Structure formats: structure tokens, C-alpha cells
Amino acid sequence: xxxxxxxxxxxxxxxxxxxxxxxxxxxxxxxxxHSAETIGMAQRGGSVTSHxxxxxxxxxxxxxxxxxxxxAFEPAEAVRNLRYLKxxxxxxxxxxxxxxxxxxxKDSDYDGSEMTDYIRKKCACIFVDSEKVTKEFGSSRxxxxxxxxxxxxxxxxxxxxxxxxxxxxxxxxAAYVDINKQAFQRGYEIGSxxxxxxxx
Amino acid sequence: MREYxxxxxxxxxxxxxxxxxxxxxxxxxxxxEIIETVSKYPHEGVHLEWSxxxxxxxxxxxxxxxxxxxxxxxxxxxxLNVASDPLMSLAYVGVKxxxxxxSADDPGPISSQTEQDTRRFADFCRIPVxxxxxxxxxxxxxxxxxxxxxxxxxPVLFRxxxxxxxxxxxxxxxxxxxxxxxxxxxKDSQKWxxxxxxxxxxxxxxxERNVRIGQDFSxxxxxxxxxxxxxxxxxxxxxxAYVRECTSDREDIxxxxxxxxxxxxxxxxxxxxxxxxxVICIEELSPYIEExxxxxxxxxxxxxxxxxxxxxxxxxxxxxxxxxxxxILGRYLGMELGKSVIDIQDAPQxxxxxxxxxxxxxxxxxxxxxxxxxxxxxxxxCGDIGCYTLGNAMPLDMVDxxxxxxxxxxxxxxxxxxxxxxxxxxxxxxxxxxxxxxxxVVNAVYNExxxxxxxxxxxxxxxxxxxxxxxxxRNMMGNIVEKVDIAMVLxxxxxxxxxxxxxxxxxxxxxxVQKAASISGxxxxxxxxxxxxxxxxxxxxxxxxxxxxxCKKCIREIGCPALVTVDVKVTIDRNLCTGCGLCVQxxxxxxxxxxxxx
Lengths: 200, 598
Hints:
heterodimer; A: alpha/beta; Pyruvate-ferredoxin Oxidoreductase, domain 3; 6-stranded mixed beta sheet; 8 helices; 6 strands; globular; B: Rossmann fold; 4 domains; 6-stranded parallel beta sheet; 21 helices
């Protein structure tokens, strides 16, 4: 299997954990795997990306037009990284915007809706509202695992569900294993439902 | 065992498997995780340290290398500038045990001040340099680097770039690491004491030796040529990976990869250029290989055209990428190499997302206190290297200069000598203070500067990933050690006005600044509050919608990312807020309240 997954968002959204779980699961299933992370200054509220490449790859970064899945934790970041997507790839995107300080200062009305409208016109997509979906979990910090669940449930990730769950168990603090597994399951259902509805 | 690690991890594991005995370095993106990885794997018998700066790290390692121990020194490329004084001399003296100096370059630059090229530094020092393209290569090449270092008794440079350091790959490593056995120091002042006579003799020997290393490198397995064509591509580092990605290793494109830029493997390149009349050099940073090929072509009167940065075919600045390589090679080879890409030219305007101080970061409060205290006064704010460089962003706008590690302290003095009216501030973090700030304070006291030193002490090296430093009381050997107290250091140097204040107590912080500004001479304020990324606060603040008059003073004054407007009303994002309470102290109508957790 050759599969490129680009995860993008804003520093602090937990994209690195999501990419780590995908990479470890792919490795556990015996695939060759490479990935790359944004580390350093951009982690402080800047745009971040994680590139995960399953199968044969030379470049640590996914080339433009090559990603099968764009897992976008923020709508504007989805648009910023849309060029990475294959023309027949799928975008899984959080509709809740993260407003940068620069936008708040300028009294900008940026709320992400313009971005989601744009993405809808451009490619196959699954939308998820992080604000709504994380309510039952009491904190936005489980959203990364929900996103992972959606990718798995959509059928586009093509990694074994049990392996993903095992890697979640391995990588989150013991006290949060159960709630993360619930978050994954919740995402998985959203993903399967969306895939069935959209014929992905 | 098979390990999935970052390139930096691969370098660490490569060094451990080569039996490294001592590892020293100073944190700096993209190199910081090398030492952290060593600390996470079994490393009994290995001395591991975050040195106070890169110069100290190199000197500590030099002595160990004189004893025959294998040493690894790690830093980012600008750290090599700091270490260059001992390195230049060490290149003349040489080593007994293998010494590999990792200097991670940062094309872009992504997290650095400069786009300098360590390969050129290797040439300047006349020592070999290795240039891996992937984490897998980094793992095996670091071991080769130790071999060459010992074979030729010279320190060697190892130059990964950000995309190699921060890329992950699976590598096969031994289950146990055995430290290298070494003889110990054998006194010989003719050998270990640098004098003009030694330098004169060794300079000649080094140049002779480098010819031999160049020949040796011509047979090095990582210098590779694949495919055949009259128009060839020469590349190095991560660019090799990009070229392979977009050409898919086609046999009708000759691809030459140079993994050892200095001493240049001339015989290898001469062999590789047979049947070729044109080359293009795809490399990041400086046109180093391009220049060496031009020299080779000139010396041997070859009829080969050389393209690259020097004729404008390849950009001088910024990173390479598969797309950029596809574009450059597409034109050069006259073939379509790019993929079809979704066109986003019609996309709505994307919000800018510059890096900002985290919500609840105590640095924000320190900057704000100084800003408030200096309202209406002429003041210069000299910044430094660390998270607090982000104090430059609007609305704080509190960094007027930033040059290099420690420069803020000395630059504030320069301003004070030529502009007597301005209040001159230097902001420095705790780790930077130890790295290169202390001598600047001595300079200030000795030369009677008039300045206010603000030490933003958050008890960690935050920007590079929270490494310990001399003020934290922990070291990389896992030991609890005596904390070096910054206030006592300043007192010892002779700073007479030293105040310590919690920056999150706004009024107290403002008064401290005002007091310091009223005294002449060298004054210091220690703003002490732990890094919010480490303390995991459960406190939150919230806006009372009935009291809030929506004046947005909080947003305009401090620009905290947790303060946002939702439906035109100021709201606090509880997922970001840490309850630091700075906004509570700013609100003119007391509409923001704290919500302390139990």
C-alpha cells in the first residue's frame, strides 16, 4: 500500500500525536513508513503540518498533488494545504475556526465559513464541528483522536482499527485511555456515516 | 531492535552504536532531540551534558577526545559560530578519539537567524564534513564519521538539515550499546599545546592529508552515481531525496550525489562526469558543490557546462522541495515532472498565523509591565533569542532589536552610550543568560552602562523543548544539582539594584520597572514565573457578559490568543486559557473573573 496523509492545524491542537499513532500503526502492520513534523517556533500558535507517508517514499514531505487524505484541524489551514491533496483525495476538516491574534486585533470576522464553502467546491470532504463533537468529552483535547477515528471510519485510511486502538492505548497517559478510546469510536462512527452518505 | 525515530534520534542511536563515550551540546532547533534521545536509551558509562553553550560543549569534548574517548557534540548552525573559536584551533591540533560535531543547518530558515552552510565552515576549518539525505543514512553515516575521524585524527563535521533532523524513519539498532574503550590522556606538549610553530607545521600536514581524504572519499559508498545521460544532475543532502521523488530514479537521468562535500571527492566527480557535457547542481544554502565542480572543470579543462545558483537556475535562498526541483529539472531536462495540483488561486484570503506567545505565558506579562511603566518615555527594547523574541508581535511590540544569543544585554549598553535620554532595556531568558549573557553584564558594570536588564526567568529552555540549564537544578546525567542562582550571579558581578518580581502581579511589576528606571547604572529585574507549557494550570478566567462593555481593551493591550471575539463579543477560550489573570488586571470594568480550580 502507498498512502500519503497530511495532517495540518495550529500549534497546540495535538496533530503530532495523531500522526504518531498513524505511523506506529502502519509500522505495526508491516508497512514501510516515513513521517515529518513541524518543530520549533511555529509550534507557538503557528501553522503546523505532519506528513505521514506509508509505503515507498523518498522525500520526507508529501509532494503537492500526492496526499490521499488531508486531515485538517482548522478550516483555513485546510485551504492553505489543499495543494498537497490528490485531485481525488478526501479532506476531513474541522469547521470550528481558530482565530489568530492578528485577526482578533483587526476585528476581522474570520470564522472559517468562507473556507469550508471553498473546500466544498474543490474536493470530496467530510466536515466535523470540533466545538459540538467535543462537548460530550468535556475538553477539546480529545479532538485529535476523534479526527483519527473519522479518518479510520471513512475507510480512506485503510489501517486496521484494532491496531490503531492499540497504538492509542500505548501513546496516551493511562488515566485517559478510556476516554480516548471513546473519542476514537465516536470519530469512527462519524467517518463511517459520512462515507456511506457520500459514497466515498 | 527496530526503532521508529526522528533523524535526530537516528544520529543519537548511530553515535551510541559507535560506542560514543561523551555527548555534549547546547539546544537549538533543529538539533535539540539528539541529546534528548541519548538520555532516553540505555547509556551507562556515557557522560551526557547540556553544556552552558556550544563553545563549552566543544571544549569539554576536545579534552575527552585527547584521551581517546569517542565524543559527539551537537548544536544548530548558529551554535557553530559560537564554537568556532575552539574548533578552528582544534582543527590544527587534531584528536585521538573520534570526534563528530553535528551542526544542523536550517534552510528556509525555519527557526534560525541565518541561512549559513556548515559545509562551507568545514572548508574554512579544513576538516571533513558528512551530509546525510535521510534519517536512515544519518544513522549509518554517523558511524562512518567516527571511523574517518579516528583514521585521520581530525574532528569531523556532520551536517543534517531540518528536514532530515525532523523526519522519522524506522532503523535497525543493536539491543545493547557498548561504549568504546580508550587509552586515556598521554601528555605531549608538542602535540596538545597550540603554538605558532605547531600551527605552521600542522597547516602543511593538514593540506596534504586533505588530498588523501578527498581520494578516500572518492571511494566512499555514499557518494553515488545512478543512471546515464549527457545532462546530469548533481545534488546533496535532502535535495537528493527530492530529486529522487520527482524523477522516480529513471535510468535516463544521470544523478550524482555528493555526501562528503569537503574534502571534495574530485576523482569520483571526474569519473561520474564521463559522457556528460552539462550538469545542474541542486543543493540548499550555498552553491558549495557547484563551486567545487566549477573548479574541477577548470582545473581539468573539461568541456562541461555548470548550472545552479550561480547562473540563476536555482534560487540562493530558502528550502528545496519536490515541487521546486520538479520545476527546475523540468526546464533543464525539457520534461514534465510535476504532478497536477488543485488550483487554489481563487481561494479566499487566508488569515496570517504568525507564532505568538502562548496564552498565559508569563513573558507577555513582563513585557506588558515594562510597556506600561515606560508610557510616554523614550525607551529602547533589546530582545534576544528564545520564546520571548515573540514579544515583538503586535500589540506588545516590545522587541526593537534581536541579533544573536546574548546580544540584547550588550546592545542595550551601546544604545545607552550614544543616547543618554533613552531608557535602555535588555530582555534575556534564563538559559540565554547562562549561555552568553553573563559576560555582557560584566561589560556593563565595568564600562558604566546605564541599562535595565530584565531576566525573563521561566526555569527552562522553553523554545527548544524545555531542556534543563544551570538554573534549574537538574542535569542530563539525571542528577539533582545545586541551582546557579541568577540573582547571586548578578550580585557577584556587582549589580547593586536587583529586584525579583512575579510578572503576573501587574502593579508590583510596573512599580519594579519604575523604580529601576529612576536609578542610574546597571539595574536588574528578575521576572520569575514558570513556563506555562510545563505547569499545566487548571485555572481559567471568564468574561461576565453583563459587566463587559465590549471595549476590547484586553485584546488590544495584550493580544492573548485565548481572548477572542465570538459574535462580536469578547470571550475567553477555555481550552487555551490558563487563568494567569493578566487580563483580569487590565479590564477597566472588572468584567473578567478568575475561576480557580480546587
